[in-house]
Every structure is written in structure tokens, then in C-alpha cells.
Amino acid sequence: MPRNPFANPLFLPVFLRVMLLIVVGLAAVLLSQRRSLEVWRRSTLFLRVRTWFVIGPLFVLAAFIGGFVAFLLATFVVVQACSEFTRIAGIERRYAYLLILWGELGLLVAALARDFFGFLPFGFFIALTLLPILSGRITDAHRQVADTLVGYVFVALPMAYIVLVKSAEPWGLNFLVIVTVSVALSDIAAYAVGSALRGRKLMPRVDPTKTWGGVLGNLIGAAVGVGWLWVAVPPEWSPAAVVVLVLVIAAASVWADLTGSFIQRAFRTEVRSTVILGYGGVLNRVDSLLMAFPLAYFALLLVHKLLE
Amino acid sequence: MSEREQGQPARAGSSRKRAGVPTYSWARTPPARLVRSGIQYGALVPLLKFISPFTVIGKRNLSKLNGPAVFVANHQSHFDAPISLAALGGRVRRRLVVAAAADYFYSSAVKGAAASLTLGTVPFVRSGGSSRDSLQFLKELVGKGWSVLIFPSGTRGTGASGFKKGFAYLAVDAQVPVVPMYLNGLEQVMPKGSFIPLPGGVVVGIGEPIPPGDDYNALVAKAEAGVAEVRAVVKGWEGA
User: Fold this and answer.
1) Could you say which residues from 250 to 289 on chain A have a Cβ atom under 8 Å away from some Cβ of chain B?
2) Under DSSP, is residue A94 helix (H, G, I), strand (E, B) or coil?
3) Mean pLDDT of the A296-303 span
């Protein structure tokens, strides 16, 4: 059921911090650009900041309201991100529909029938292999099945994890907000610090733009993100767990960047989406979060287990 | 026969039925328009934004219009008309009809009524002498202040050139401007032969209104050039 976000004492502090972050980002970009407003209004950076003014509050509101509002947002992300992946990978439409449907089913199972969550990946594999078996169309089916599986593990399953953790853990909402904001800051800081410092390339054969300076930016962004939302860090999280969280978010952001580049190159595609102004596709915007979220969650559980 | 004469109707049809195809005039009455507005604002546009989030480029060109116009666009998908309607916005949409293939959308009474009510379509006979009746009917609508959205390539998936002249007859004879549009991305959302959309972003480009002049062929060439120009803008846009 949707909840009144103002009833949660965490809502206003988080909302204001996120908005302040966006305003500071806008000011920083304006100062660094030093261009006329007319030129600035036509730039990618303007579109990106404008986009943040929409998706920032939208995300915080949906997360705190919960219920079908959060479900609608999650559905939009699953549908659009899965679609984009199928275009990048050249996946046939029937496999694409299955990926989207199973992604939606995953959200429902994570929210309403958590006991069956573990069956989701295996169930998807069964449904996926039944497609060529029942249709009799087996030419190129091995590639279609394999690529669709990658799409499921890359996009749909992590989205189901987000819903699962948010609904199952008492601190699920705090974790979602902290990880989402930190991942976004990590990405932005990687771009800013990487552009400023440049330095040695990290993996030039995979992504010629990623530098060690950018990796440092990832780490700084993740640390600033967690620190900025310290108000949302639950008291039961130990300092060691928070440090691990920062490291894992930074590492996962780097990994997500490289994986995104690897996928683009592996599929030799120039497919671009237009869903989010200034960013292109939904997948492009959420891939770091999708990869960081389950990893950060299990890292946190592991640290808590070790410290018990 | 001169070009001008070709644009004249072969015969005048009744306002209720032309060439064996009903005109669904009830769909343009105030109550039906109210229902259509409700459907479009309440369901169609939100659904389209969910399935195919669209970005509109050049919407300010619409402010240069101060009366009815003929909108021409490339045709790739059954989603073209709904996305165009959503992109044009409520002010234009309120008095806009979509020329829809009579042999496809009006093959049954229920299908025709549903299309007329939800999208504001009117039947357009694509070939034979009856197409002149369709053109005459559209001219009458333009005379009453209705704009027309038409896909002049005639069928889906034929690109943004090779426009048929029907829209030019309409614009020149009624002396209304032609507005070129280009829809990018819908060929992936729902290409010809597909009946379930695969979600994805779409960009709609709207060009500057082209004055009708008095030469049909020249207007066709200008409209094709206009659509090509909008296409270049859309393709060059960084999000596309």
C-alpha cells in the first residue's frame, strides 16, 4: 500500500539533501562552463541537470511512497531497460517479450511472494529454453537464449533484488536511497575527476575513456554519497560495514562502466535510446545501480556475519 | 487534365457516406470530442509516454500556425498516428483529424468507430476514383477549421520520400500551410507485421510550416525536402 512520505521522519532530510545536491551540481556546472545562457541551454550538461531535477525528486518520492507508485517506477525501468538491452544485443522480439514479462514477474514475486524468489532464475531458464523447443525455430536459438540470459542477469534480476531488499529488510528503504544516490555521485565524480586528472588508462582495450583518475573519482563520489546521506545510515550498521559499502559501491561502479563498454563493443552496436534527455537510455542511467545493488547488499550481509 | 483540375472531386458525395465508407461525422460532435479528449489525456498519452517516451523537437513551430494546417509525416508503424497526436499537444489535437486507410481501419464498423472516437480518424480511400471523394471530404473539414494529419507515402515502411500528391491537392485547394514532421524510432517499437509494441524512446521532429502556393508538384517537393530537413535535425540531435 502507498504510504504518506511525510509520515517517515527520514523523508524530508533525504529529499532536501538530494535536492541540495542537484542544486550544487547545477551551480558547479554553471561556474565551470562560463558560457552564455543560450549556448548553455543547448548543451548536454544542461539536459542532464534538467533531467536530474526530474528524476531526483521522482525517485525519492516513489521510494518513500512505496506501494504501486514505486512499483510503477520499477516497472518502467524494467520495461525500458530490458527493451534497450534486447536492441543492443539484437535479440528477437519473442525473446525480448519473455525477458520483459519475466522481469515484471520478478518484481511481483519480490514484492508479494518472496518465498519463491529463488525459483525465478531457474524458472526463466525453463521458459527461455521452451521458446525454441515449442516453436521449433532452433536456428541461432543458442545465441538468442544465451544473450537473453545475459540480459536477465544484467537487468531484470537485479531490479527484482532491489524490490526484494526494500521490502524484506527493515533498513531496505535506507539501503536503497543510500546506494542509489552514492552510485549516481560515484558516476558523476568519476567523470569530473577523470576529466580533471586524466592519467593512465584503466582498460584501454575495453573502454578507452576510463582512467585511473576516474576510478579515484568513483571512490570519492561513493564516500561523499554515503557521508551526505549519513542521516539514513541505520544505527545497527557497523563502521566497518559502512567502509565496505563505500568500497563496494565504488568498485561496482567501475565494473558497471567497463561492463557497459564491453557489452557495447561485444555486440558491435551503436544503438542509442532517447528515453532520458541528455543520457539516452534508461539502461545507461541505471546499469551501475543494477550491478552495485546486489553486490553491496551481500557485502553488507557478509560483514555483519563476520562481525557477529 | 490540368494539375488543378485533377485536384477537383470527381463527384460530390453525401456528408454521411462517401464511396461506400461512412464518414463517422458523429465522432466530430462536441460530446464525442469531449470523450476523445478524456481518453487521450487520461489514457492514451500517459500510456504512450510509458511505452514510448517521446521527445518533441521544434514544437515552437506550431505557434506560427493561426488556423488549420496539413501535417505530413513519414509512416513506419501503427504507432505513428497516436504518437503524432500526443506530440502535437492538446491545442492542435482538439481540431485535428487523421487520414486513416479506409481499407484497413474501416474494414469493420466497430474498428472504424473505435479509431474515429479515440484518435479522431477519418476514412481515406487510398486508390481508385473514391480517393477523390476522400480528398473532397478532407477539404470540407479543413474549410470548417479542422487540421489534417496525413501520411503521404501511403503505407508503412516506405521512408520519408515518394510522397503521393493527395496532401498537396488538399493544402493548395484549401490554401492552408503544410507542416512537415519526422518520426524517429517507431520502426523499432512496432514495425510493419508486428502487433505488440517493444517499448523504446521516440523522437518527433516538427518543421516550419510551408506556405501552400499554387503548384501541387512544387508543394510535394517542398514537403519532401521539409521532412528531410526535420529528419536531419532529429538524427543530428544528441539524444537520437
Assistant:
1) 272-275, 277-278, 280-281
2) helix
3) 94
